[in-house]
Amino acid sequence: MGNSTLYPAIDVRDGRVVRLHQGDYAQETRYETEPLALATRYAEAGAKWLHLIDLDAARYGGYTLAPLLRAITTSSWMRVQTGGGVRSEADVEAILDAGADRVVVGSLAIKEPELVIGWLKRFGADRITIALDVRQNSAGDWELPVAGWTEDSGMRLEPLLERYAQAGLRHLLCTDVSRDGTLAGPNLDLYRHIHEVAPYVQLQASGGIRDIADIVAADGVGCAGAVLGKALIEGRFELTDALRQVRRC
């Protein structure tokens, strides 16, 4: 196993920690733990990174988590990659100024790749994480849905990924939407394929991870890290155990 980076995930909606099933806002599970308290717990467990998403902004625009982001980064040593509703260069700059180490860019990376490539050049490849949500169609092609996964963008994964790789993309988070929030295991075939298409991109597995064995398996097909969502927050494994496994190898 390589030196994988683990990203415990906190998704926030209406100020609460939530998880969505396959990105559906109508299929939401709310958790009692407050976002800052959960972030503190992850930091105390030894997490070096946090994946923080503003679900309200992802839907309506206008990142709202700057106060929470500042509180996390000033009260812990964790580095944070965060996003939701990133629409402009000013949004990227504001989130970085609020303390983020990386800004997650999703739908806009599909809709306006030249704009986002410009951000890679301006802010640096280490400050941007491109998040591509994918769905495999009946022909076996990987589509890139947008608008809450309700619309096909008309783009396909491979040409867009190659375009970003040629522009110097370093950090890619990719989610098979059919696995998101399902605890069905990550799509290892997808990640193996991405690693073949863009071997120098640092790939983060996201969606379906159930246990530490899934983290190890994702690492084995070329993932540099894994985003830990539902299984972690519901206590199906301990973050300390996962981090120990990563650091031992």
UniProtKB/TrEMBL annotation:
**CDD domains reported in the protein's UniProt record:** HisA
Q: Residues in the active site?
A: D11, D133
Cytoplasm as UniProt keyword:
yes
UniProt keyword terms in alphabetical order: Amino-acid biosynthesis, Cytoplasm, Histidine biosynthesis, Isomerase
Q: What does the record give as its pathway?
A: Amino-acid biosynthesis; L-histidine biosynthesis; L-histidine from 5-phospho-alpha-D-ribose 1-diphosphate: step 4/9
Annotated EC: 5.3.1.16
Instruction: Name the InterPro entries for this protein.
Output: Aldolase_TIM, His_biosynth, HisA/PriA, HisA_bact_arch, Isoase_HisA-like, RibuloseP-bd_barrel
Subcellular localization, per the record?
Answer: Cytoplasm
* Swiss-Prot/TrEMBL catalytic activity: 1-(5-phospho-beta-D-ribosyl)-5-[(5-phospho-beta-D-ribosylamino)methylideneamino]imidazole-4-carboxamide = 5-[(5-phospho-1-deoxy-D-ribulos-1-ylimino)methylamino]-1-(5-phospho-beta-D-ribosyl)imidazole-4-carboxamide
Q: Name one GO cellular component term.
A: cytoplasm
User: What is the protein name given in its UniProt record?
Assistant: 1-(5-phosphoribosyl)-5-[(5-phosphoribosylamino)methylideneamino] imidazole-4-carboxamide isomerase
Q: Which PANTHER family is this protein grouped with?
A: 1-(5-PHOSPHORIBOSYL)-5-[(5-PHOSPHORIBOSYLAMINO)METHYLIDENEAMINO] IMIDAZOLE-4-CARBOXAMIDE ISOMERASE
Supply one GO BP term: L-histidine biosynthetic process
In terms of superkingdom, the source organism counts as Bacteria
Similarity comment: Belongs to the HisA/HisF family.
Q: Does this entry carry the keyword Amino-acid biosynthesis?
A: yes
Taxonomic placement: Bacteria, Pseudomonadati, Pseudomonadota, Gammaproteobacteria, Lysobacterales
UniProt-recorded Gene Ontology molecular function terms: 1-(5-phosphoribosyl)-5-[(5-phosphoribosylamino)methylideneamino]imidazole-4-carboxamide isomerase activity
